[in-house]
Design brief:
Helices cover 0% and strands 47% of the residues. The two termini are 18 Å apart. A 5-stranded antiparallel β-sheet has the order 3-6-11-8-9, with no helix packed on it. It is built from no helices and 12 strands. By secondary structure, the protein is mostly beta strands. The chain has a domain at 51-171: Galactose-binding domain-like (Jelly Rolls), CATH 2.60.120.260. A hairpin with a 5-residue loop joins strand 1 and strand 2 (20-24). 27% of the residues are buried.
Length: 184
């Protein structure tokens, strides 16, 4: 007997005791980023899956978040200060990184984007002062599958300065064949 590949799945579900509903399953986009809302952070110190660079931390339940209860921050008067998270990206897939960021009025050298495994920027946007949360967005299509980092940070202007970051997400089209191969 010949077995054919399954191309469609039927899903049956019951909702609140209602009738069974069946339909074709839709592909699910698998997220490469974890805890982009920072709601899993329980204390002011940055913890996995996030990594602090320079002076960075978490505002937990302080009413400073764009959404939810928590947000990340970086603050200092000198040097590079940021948060980042390692992610695994697939060659040929287009990824869009988004986050909501606000800053002190003196931030002029903020950067947001993707870095390679050696921490070299591969796709980034520069930002300046953002007095209210604004959405930043950058797109990247890697040519090599492997480890990368998403990041948000700034070069401090030799005086006290800060950024706050929240609602970070990485999206990719669900129909991207490199990310969602089909049985053939």
């Amino acid at each position: 007997m010949r077995h054919l590949p399954i191309r469609h799945l039927l899903i049956a579900a019951t909702v609140a005791g209602g009738p069974l509903v069946a339909g074709a399953a839709q592909a699910q986009c698998v997220g490469v980023l974890r805890d982009g809302t920072f709601e899993a952070q329980r204390i002011g110190t940055v913890s996995a899956p996030w990594i602090a660079e320079g002076s960075a931390g978490m505002d937990v339940g302080r009413g400073l978040a764009h959404g939810g209860r928590n947000n990340a921050w970086a603050r200092r008067n000198t040097g590079w200060n940021a948060i980042r998270q390692p992610v695994r990206l697939i060659a040929g897939v287009t990824y869009t990184l988004r986050a909501f960021v606000r800053t002190s009025e003196n931030v002029r050298d903020g950067y947001f984007g993707f870095r390679d495994a050696a921490q070299h920027p591969v796709s980034e946007v520069k930002f300046g002062p953002l007095p209210a949360y604004g959405e930043l967005r950058v797109t990247f299509r890697p040519t090599v599958t492997g480890p990368y980092n998403v990041f948000a940070g700034f070069w401090a202007p030799n005086q006290d300065a800060w950024i706050q970051v929240d609602d970070v997400r990485v999206t990719t089209p669900c129909n991207d064949t490199a990310a969602n191969p089909v049985d053939g």
